[in-house]
Design brief:
Length: about 140
């Protein structure tokens, strides 16, 4: 536990949160400022900052729970689907890994402001990204 971490405190029960499910490895609770009502956060109990820091043995527990959350928002709230996201460092306001699961409905307006798209300049530009990423994957 990291003493100044708000999600460690929630996992430890030191700060109140609207917990909807917890197990040995994870805690799932309502985001205090939801994109839509029912927006959930899934955290590992132990403190890891980003997904890259999460050890292999906790990868399945965290993402199995995230999958359960995508099922729960549909079953409980009549959502038609969900959006799942993890901010790593950039745009990450709480430096304790958390998976967002946000209930979605057709026409809920999220698409409009989210993820403006752009184009690759040309094939060479795109291929440059392919090569750099392939090389990085090979070294991981
Ligand atoms: P991030 O911006 O790091 O991806 O997401 C952090 C999320 O944590 C935000 O959506 C924010 O609303 C939520 N959050 C921040 N502090 C608290 C808190 O004390 N309790 C709860 N339940 N959610 C929080
Ligand atoms: Zn923490």
């Amino acid at each position: 536990m990291k003493s100044d971490c708000i999600f460690c405190k929630i996992a430890n029960g030191d700060i109140k949160a609207d917990v909807v499910e917890e197990d040995e490895d994870t805690v799932t609770f309502l985001d205090a400022s939801p994109v839509f009502p029912g927006h959930l956060l899934i955290v590992p109990r132990r403190h890891f900052e980003t997904l890259a820091d999460l050890p292999d043995n906790l990868l399945a527990p965290v993402f199995l729970q995230a999958r359960r959350a995508t099922q729960a928002v549909v079953a409980a709230l009549g959502a038609e689907g969900s959006f799942m996201a993890v901010n790593n460092k950039i745009s990450q306001t709480v430096p304790h890994l958390h998976v967002h699961v946000i209930p979605r409905r057709k026409g809920d307006g999220l698409k409009g402001f989210f993820w403006p798209r752009r184009s690759y300049t040309d094939d060479a530009h795109r291929q440059d990204f392919v090569s750099r990423l392939k090389e990085a994957f090979e070294k991981l």
